[in-house]
Amino acid sequence: MKEKLEALKAEALEKLQAVTDPQMLNELRVKYLGKKGELTEVLRGMGGLSAEERPVIGQVANLVRSAIEEVIGTKQELFQQQETQNRLNAEKVDVTLQGRGLPQGGIHPLSRVIQEIEDIFIGMGYQVAEGPEVETDYYNFEALNLPKNHPARDMQDSFYITEDILMRTQTSPVQIRTMQAMNGETPVKVICPGKVFRRDDDDATHSFQFHQIEGLVIGRNIRMSDLKGTLQQFMKEMFGPSAGIRLRPSFFPFTEPSVEVDVSCFKCGGEGCRLCKQSGWLEILGAGMVHPNVLRMGGYDPEIYSGFAFGMGAERIAMLKYGIDDIRYFYTNDMGFVKQFKGI
Ligand code: PHE
C-alpha cells in the first residue's frame, strides 16, 4: 500500500508540473483529492490493514496529501498573479491622452451685479446683513411706519401667507432687524441684499419676484449731504468716474425727507439716447433720511441719532448695465442668455 501511495504521489506531482491553466489544475485536484478521488480510494483500503501498519500508512498518506496540496496551492497562486498581471496590462492608462475639457462657467449677471454693489459698499466700511424672505407684517410694514390700513401699503401689493405673515415686499425689514440687533449701538452701516416678492403680473419690466439691495447708516450727525455723497461715490464706482447724480423729491413712509435718485446716462453721457429715453438720466434708487418713528422702533432716540437709507433693484441695474430688455431673461435659465456672461 505504501508503494501505491508513493506511486500516486509521483504521478500526481508530475501531472501537476505540466498544468498550464486553472481549469486543468482544478480537474487534477478533483482527480486526486476529491471525495471520489484516487487518494481517498487508496485510503478506503486501510480497513484491511493490521493495527501496526495502519498508523504508518496513515502517516504516509497524510504526507502524500500535503505534498499534493502544496503544489496545487503554489500553482493556484501563480495563476492568480498571472491573471492580475494580465488585467493590469489590459487596463493600462495612457496618461499622455488629451483630457476632456470642462465647459467654462460664468457668474449669473444678477449675482454679478449684487456682488459688485456689495464690494463697493464693503470698500466704504459697510457690512452685509441678511434677513428672512418670509416676514411678519410687523417688520415688513408696521415697524417701517406703515400701520395697518395705511394707504401707502397699496404701493406694494403683497403675497400674504396668513393675516400676519407675508413674503417680504422689500428688504427694508432688515433695517429694523439690524437696528434691533445692534441694541442701540452706533455706527450702523449695512447693506442688505435679497429677494423680494410683489403681486405683480410678469412682463418685460415687472416680476413677482426680484432683488433689492438696501442700505442703512445710523449714527450721530448723519445728514442728507452724507447720503448724497455716499450715493455719488457709489454711482462713480458702479457706472464710471463721469457719473453724476440728481435727487428728486419723493415719498416713502419710512424716510423723511425722501428722494428718488437718478444717475446720468452712462451710455450717452447725458446727451439723451434710447436707454435714458432722451432724458439724459436713469432712475436708479429710492432713498431718504430715516423717519423718526422708524428710528424709535429700531431702538434709537431720534433726538440723538439720525440716519439715511436707500434701496435699489438689482434687476434694473443689471438691465441697464448689460443692455437687457426683458427682466424674465434672468429667471428662465435660457442657456443662450446665460452663456453671454461667461468669463466677464
Ligand atoms: N424699500 C423701498 C421700495 O421698495 C426702497 C427704499 C429703501 C426707499 C430705503 C427708501 C429707503 O420701494
From TrEMBL:
Gene3D superfamilies in UniProt: Bira Bifunctional Protein, Domain 2
Enzyme Commission number, as recorded: 6.1.1.20
Keyword Ligase: yes
Alphabetic keyword roster: Aminoacyl-tRNA synthetase, ATP-binding, Cytoplasm, Ligase, Magnesium, Metal-binding, Nucleotide-binding, Protein biosynthesis
Stored InterPro entries: aa-tRNA-synth_II, aa-tRNA-synth_II/BPL/LPL, Phe-tRNA-synth_IIc_asu, Phe-tRNA_ligase_II_N, Phe_tRNA_ligase_alpha1_bac, Phenylalanyl-tRNA_Synthase, tRNA-bd_arm
Cofactor: how bound: Binds 2 magnesium ions per tetramer.
Keyword check for Transcription regulation: no
CDD domains named in the record: PheRS_alpha_core
Complexes and interactors: Tetramer of two alpha and two beta subunits.
Protein name (Swiss-Prot/TrEMBL): Phenylalanine--tRNA ligase alpha subunit
Organism: Paenibacillus tritici
